[in-house]
């Protein structure tokens, strides 16, 4: 994932993390991913009353990022991510790491689905030219 997010940053993209994780769990995942230095901002369950599919978490990440929803593609691995993205007026794209099928992610509103983040970013780059991306 780090390679893919670095490529986005090199293109001038802003990156936000909108996650239902909080506290020690969030710190652990951030440590495992080793991408904290690539994030422009973050919104987590500590910041909102309801998690995904409620769109408020994604909306908060967008406000912190300072980018309007229509200019963002949110990458997530569950149908709840796609539902939250749509509710926050942003596009959604999916990766298969969350255990959901491609069909389930597409039905939830993902415009594209790929096995990994790097594959997804390559596909999105071909299909459209988003100026910013938000990662789940």
Structure description:
There is one protein chain. With 136 residues, the chain is of the alpha/beta class. Helix content is 41%, strand content 21%. It has helices at residues 2-10, 23-33, 56-65, 79-87, 102-107, 117-127, and strands at 15-19, 41-44, 72-76, 91-95, 110-114, 132-135. The longest helix has 11 residues, at 23-33. The chain contains six helices and six strands, in the order H-E-H-E-H-E-H-E-H-E-H-E. The chain starts with a helix and ends with a strand. Helix 4 (79-87) links the parallel strand 3 (72-76) and strand 4.
Strand content is 15-25%
Main sheet overview: 6 strands, parallel
Q: Regarding CATH, which class?
A: Alpha Beta
CATH superfamily: HAD superfamily/HAD-like
Q: What order do the SSEs take from the amino end to the carboxyl end, as H and E?
A: HEHEHEHEHEHE
Physical arrangement of strands within the biggest beta sheet: 2-1-6-3-4-5
Helix proportion range: 40-55%
Calculate the terminal CA-CA distance, rounded to whole Å: 12 Å
Strand segment count:
6
Structural class: alpha/beta
- CATH architecture assignment name: 3-Layer(aba) Sandwich
Nearest-integer average pLDDT: 90
| Low-confidence residue ranges | 129-133
CATH domain fold name: Rossmann fold
**Rg for CA atoms:** 13 Å
Principal-axes geometry comes out as globular
